Amino acid sequence: MAGIYIHIPFCKQACHYCDFHFSTNLSYMDDMVNVINSELVQRADYLPISQPIHTIYFGGGTPSLLSTRQLESILNTITKHYRLEISELTVETNPDDLKRDKLRDLKSLGFDRLSIGIQSFQEEILKFYNRAHNAQESIKAIGLAKEAGFEKLSIDLIYGFPSKNHEIWEKDLTIALSQDPGHISSYCLTVEPQTALGSWVEKGKFEPASDDFAATQFEMMLEKLTASGYIQYEISNFGKEGEFAVHNTNYWMGVPYLGIGPSAHSFDGRSRGANVASNHAYIRGIKSGAPIFTTEEMSTEDLVNEFIMTGLRTIWGVDLGLLIQEFQIDLLAMKSSMIDQLRSEQMIEKKDQSIVLTGKGRLLADSIASALFI
Prior knowledge:
- The chain has helices at residues 29-42, 68-81, 100-108, 123-129, 135-147, 167-179, 196-202, 211-227, 246-252, 279-288, 300-312, 320-327, 331-334, 336-344, 359-362, 365-372; strands at residues 2-8, 53-60, 84-93, 113-119, 152-159, 183-188, 231-234, 237-239, 257-260, 265-267, 271-275, 293-297, 318-319, 348-351, 354-357.
- With 374 residues, the protein is an alpha/beta fold.
C-alpha cells in the first residue's frame, strides 16, 4: 500500500509560530490546483504499480480554503491516474471554514477524516498565535462536524505556552476531552527562525517556556488522555482504540508516499525527495517542464537509522527481526552495551522481537534514537 499527500500552500493569515510553506495571496488558487493536477499526471509512475493508494491526505497550508469544485478536481485526477484501495481520505481544516455547507460538501466528496487545527481553546492564546478563528468557533466546528456525520475527527493542540502555572493547559485539555474527538495530536510550541515568534525571541520581546515546563505539560497530557481512554500510539499522537490516523501512522511505519504540491516531500521506499518550496517556481516548473523535484538517495545506513528513529516514536517500536530481514542488521549484536544500558535506566523495554520506549524514554526519544543509530 502507499499514500498520496497533497500540499495546499495557502492560508488566510500567517500564524506567528508557523514555518510551513504557504502564501496568504489567494488570487491564484485556481492556477495552483491546475498545476497540482498536472503534477499528479506527470508523476503517476513514482510509486510502484504493485502498491495501490491506501490513503490520501490534503495538508498545508489550509486545504479547507479550497472550493468543493477545486477539491473534486484533484480527487478526479487521482481517481483517473492511480489504482486506489482507499481506507482513509483526510483533509486538514481550520474551525472558521467548517460551516454546514462546507462539511456537507466534504462528506459528499468522500472525506472521512477531518484534522481540525484548534491549537488552543483560550481566546488570548489564539490571538497571540494570530489564528483566524476564536474559541467558540472551535467548539462549534467540532459539533457541526459530528452533526454532518464525520466519525473520525482529529484535533491539534499546542502545549508549552509560557505562563506562571499550568492552568491554561489544564483548561485546554479539559475542554478538548469534553468534546470527545477520537484523535488528538499535540505539539510543543517551538521557536522557528523566519517566523514572527522567532523575531520576538531574537529581539527579547518573548521568552519561551523552559524545557522542564514543557515536559511537565507533556506529562500532564499523557496522564489525562490515557485516563480518558486515549492510546499514545506515537509520541505526539493519541487515539482511541480503532481511531488511529491511518495516513500519519503509515509515515512512521515507512510506507511509501507521493508528495504533490510546492514543498511536498516523497518517499519511494529507498529514496526521499522534495518539491521546490516556492509557489511561483513550482508553477513555472510544472508548466515548462523544468525540474521542481530533487532526490536524496539514501544509503543502507540512512534507511536503517530512519527505521530506528521512526519506529521508536510508536507503540510498536523497532522491529529487530524486520531489521535483519530487510537490511541484514542485527541491532542487538551491534548495540548490545547501549541497549543494556538503556534497559537498566528503564528508557526502553523489549517486547517480543521489538525495542519499545518506556514512558520515561518517550521524553528523550530523539536522543535515544541517536544512541542506537548505526
